[in-house]
């Protein structure tokens, strides 16, 4: 009986692993297509990129690309890493932290491109809902990372309830990221 239950668990585990690998493949394909479409749009319809170019529009084109790469693609990769990559818990944590760090640095470079664009045109930085929501989301992202780093050494009795609540924070940041994207579309139609 015990042998049969062990084989059933292994069979279910194998099915879950296969489904996760298909799901992981699908998300990677969606991420590559999203990045490719944004690059195509920026090159074809917005005349490319330029950080040190006198044309401020070319400098601003870095903002959507870096924000999508950072906070949407690399953040998603960091979350998927726990299920898609096999390894020890410690190595998965390192991969997760590295991908989130890359997401933060890439996102901050995107914010820098937008701020530089606004500075050169002498436009106020926080004049749309998109900008306020975006800055708030970045602060939430950083606060969540700081909270995780501060709870690393906690005992299991104290840490487990906090980690269960952490999932609500993760979902909240994801919803905020989607809200930033939606407010961008709305602000383009309103202004």
TrEMBL record:
Localization in the cell: Membrane
GO cellular component assignments: membrane
Start and end residues of each Cytochrome b561 domain: 26-191
Topology of the protein relative to the lipid bilayer: Multi-pass membrane protein
Keywords noted in UniProt: Electron transport, Heme, Iron, Membrane, Metal-binding, Transmembrane, Transmembrane helix, Transport
Cofactor: heme b
GO molecular function: metal ion binding; oxidoreductase activity
Transmembrane segments: 21-43, 63-85, 97-119, 131-154, 166-190
Matches recorded under SMART domains: B561
Principal place of residence: membrane
Name of the protein this chain belongs to: Cytochrome b561 domain-containing protein
Organism expressing this protein natively: Lactuca sativa
Highest classification ranks of the organism: Eukaryota, Viridiplantae, Streptophyta, Embryophyta, Tracheophyta
């Amino acid at each position: 009986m015990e042998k049969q239950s062990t084989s059933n668990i292994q069979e279910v585990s194998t099915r879950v692993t296969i489904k996760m690998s298909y799901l992981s493949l699908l998300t990677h394909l969606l991420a590559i297509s999203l990045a490719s479409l944004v690059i195509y749009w920026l090159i074809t319809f917005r005349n490319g990129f330029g950080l040190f170019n006198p044309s401020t529009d070319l400098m601003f084109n870095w903002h959507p690309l870096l924000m999508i790469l950072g906070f949407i693609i690399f953040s998603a990769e960091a979350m998927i890493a726990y299920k898609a990559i096999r390894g020890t818990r410690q190595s998965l944590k390192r991969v997760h932290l590295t991908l989130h760090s890359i997401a933060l640095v890439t996102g901050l470079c995107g914010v820098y491109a937008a701020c530089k664009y606004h500075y050169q045109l002498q436009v106020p930085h926080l004049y749309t809902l998109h900008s306020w929501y975006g800055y708030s989301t970045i602060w939430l992202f950083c606060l969540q990372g700081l909270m995780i780093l501060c709870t690393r050494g906690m005992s299991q009795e104290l840490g487990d309830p906090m980690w269960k609540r952490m999932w609500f924070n993760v979902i909240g940041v994801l919803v905020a990221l989607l809200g930033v994207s939606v407010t961008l579309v709305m602000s383009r139609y309103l202004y």
